[in-house]
Amino acid sequence: AQSVTQPDIHITVSEGASLELRCNYSYGATPYLFWYVQSPGQGLQLLLKYFSGDTLVQGIKGFEAEFKRSQSSFNLRKPSVHWSDAAEYFCAVGPSYGGATNKLIFGTGTLLAVQP
Amino acid sequence: EPEVTQTPSHQVTQMGQEVILRCVPISNHLYFYWYRQILGQKVEFLVSFYNNEISEKSEIFDDQFSVERPDGSNFTLKIRSTKLEDSAMYFCASSEGGPSYGYTFGSGTRLTVV
Question: How confident is the prediction for chain A on average, in pLDDT?
Answer without folding.
Answer: 91
